[in-house]
Each structure stands twice: as structure tokens, then as C-alpha cells.
Specification:
Elements (H helix, E strand, L loop, with lengths): L2 E3 L5 H6 L3 E5 L6 E6 L5 E5 L12 E5 L2 H12 L5 E7 L4 E8 L10 E6 L4 H8 L2 E3 L1 H10 L4 E3 L2 H13 L4 E7 L5 E6 L11 E4 L2 E6 L8 E12 L2 E8 L2 H17 L8 E3 L11
Parallel strand pairs: 1-2, 5-8, 6-17
Antiparallel strand pairs: 2-3, 3-4, 6-7, 7-8, 9-16, 10-14, 11-12, 12-13, 14-15, 15-16
């Protein structure tokens, strides 16, 4: 049987003529060999896997910072021949550049992408995971580990408070007076004199402020932490709750998006949302 390069419209005629058919699909897709099986059917063999290089670009490049995302888009756009768009998902804090997107009514493969996957910093994870009421030791350890991020009151004052709780784990607590500046006093009784802080009392600020970077490569944002405690049966539970931390995270993402949009990208549209899934391949 002879081989022949045949347009797709002439497949039936070629099969009737008892020939092999080799058909080259449009630029940007793979070469198929359509082989006659019998008088009524044929098989399709994808030969791209045996080529020295892929017929077209596909896959996802993952960047971890805004500048890295912009650089990856610039690099891959140099060799990409399709329409492209950037999608911004504020809920997931992700940017996705689809480099072979749909354009002008023509459906793209949508499977060549650059993803910005922003990772939380260690300090953001420390302070967000440490939220809530808990044991004295848990609160004290968070303050000590996050000393560098405390803005006000001073880190020294908050460390003194943490050390007081370390020294009085076996003490019995009761709520004291609320001071004019909004701080609350705790009174505790113990068998052994505490070695740090005011003997017999601990003054609790109503809130403190930390400066956090939500993502690697992002700037720092001040976040208020409301300090709360509960005394029950002489036992103290203490902790904090970050004020609108999710809003701070979204603000940080919006700043990253603005910086990416200001980069020298080839006038790509920025769409708020998520891209469509790639169309089903031919198998």
C-alpha cells in the first residue's frame, strides 16, 4: 500500500483507493498518521512523541512572586503565537496568564499558562494560626516567636507580659479593674513569687499591633490584634484575634496585581475571574 499526503476531506476517497494517508494538521498542532484498517475504518497515530521537540508549547509555569510572574509571562510570550489574557482570582490570591487563550471567536487550547502562586510568609502563618483563646504558654510562645513583628505596645512590654504568664502557670487568676486607657488588670495568687512582671498583677492591653507580610515579596501591613482572656475557676485562657486579616490579605494581593499590571507586559487584558478549562484533547 502506498503512502499519501491527503486533505482530510479526501479521507474516504483515499481509503477506497486502498492507500495509507498521512495528514498534517494546522501549524501549532501535531502530525497524525491516519492508517487504513479495513474498508470502513481507520486508526489515528499521534507521532509528536517521537519528534525532537513538541509541535507547540503547553504546560504551566509556576511563579512565587509578582516580579517572577511578570518575567515568566514576558519570556514565554516571546515564543507564543496565540492570544493571551491574565485572570485575577482574589479569593484564591492567584494570577493565571493563559498564553493560548480564545480570541475573536477562535477557540484556543488554553493549556499553556503561567500561574502566580503566592505563598504565605512564616510570620503570617505564625500569627494567623495562633489566633484564639488558649493556654497561657501558647500565648506566651506566640509573643516570643513573633517579637520582630510587634509594633505597639513595644515588643519589650509584650515580652514582659509573656514572661509573666510563663512564670505564673500554676497561679490562680481573677479579673481585676479596667483602667482608664482601656487596659484590663488580672490578679493572680501563687505559692512562689513570680520572677518577671508585676508581682501579683498583670496588666493586659486591649489590643496590640503587628506588621506582617502576607506573601513572600509583598510589603508589610499593620494588623490590629484584639487581646482577649477568660477566667473560669481560677484558670486563665488568653489569646488574640486579628482584626480583618482577610481584608489585609486581599489588599496585599491587589497591590501585587497592580505591580504586575505596571510591568512591561504586551498589553494583556486583566480579567477578574478564573480562566476556562482547556478543551478536551483528541486523546
Amino acid at each position: 500500500m502506498a503512502a499519501d499526503h491527503t486533505p482530510m476531506g479526501d479521507v474516504e476517497a483515499a481509503l477506497a483507493a486502498d492507500r495509507f494517508i498521512e495528514h498534517t494538521r494546522p501549524v501549532g498542532e501535531a502530525v497524525d498518521r491516519i492508517i487504513r484498517v479495513d474498508d470502513t475504518s481507520c486508526g489515528i497515530s499521534d507521532v509528536e512523541r517521537w519528534q525532537p521537540t513538541p509541535t507547540r508549547a503547553r504546560g504551566t509555569v509556576t511563579a512565587l512572586t509578582g516580579p517572577g510572574f511578570a518575567a515568566a509571562v514576558q519570556t514565554h510570550m516571546e515564543v507564543e503565537t496565540y492570544a493571551a489574557a491574565i485572570y485575577a482570582d482574589a479569593d484564591a490570591c492567584q494570577l493565571v496568564a493563559v498564553l493560548n487563550d480564545d480570541c475573536g471567536g477562535i477557540v484556543g487550547w488554553r493549556d499553556h499558562r503561567v500561574l502566580l502562586d503566592l505563598r504565605p510568609t512564616p510570620e503570617w502563618s505564625l500569627w494567623t494560626k495562633g489566633e484564639g483563646l488558649g493556654k497561657q504558654a501558647r500565648f506566651a510562645e506566640t509573643i516570643e516567636q513573633g517579637e520582630a513583628e510587634i509594633v505597639r505596645p513595644s515588643a519589650t512590654e509584650m515580652l514582659d507580659l509573656a514572661q509573666t504568664f510563663h512564670a505564673s502557670i500554676a497561679a490562680k487568676f481573677k479579673a481585676g479593674n479596667r483602667l482608664q486607657d482601656g487596659r484590663q488588670q488580672l490578679v493572680y495568687e501563687e505559692d512562689i513569687q513570680a520572677t518577671a512582671g508585676s508581682a501579683g498583677t498583670a496588666t493586659i492591653p486591649s489590643e496590640f499591633v503587628v506588621a506582617l507580610r502576607p506573601f513572600h515579596g509583598a510589603q508589610r501591613y499593620e494588623v490590629r490584634a484584639r487581646l482577649r482572656f477568660l477566667v473560669r475557676g481560677g484558670e486563665l485562657s488568653i489569646g488574640y484575634f486579628l482584626h480583618r486579616a482577610e481584608d489585609v490579605r486581599r489588599l496585599a494581593f491587589a497591590d501585587v496585581v497592580a505591580k504586575v499590571a505596571a510591568q512591561d507586559l504586551p498589553s494583556l487584558p486583566m480579567i477578574e475571574g478564573r480562566p476556562a478549562a482547556p478543551p478536551e484533547s483528541r486523546g
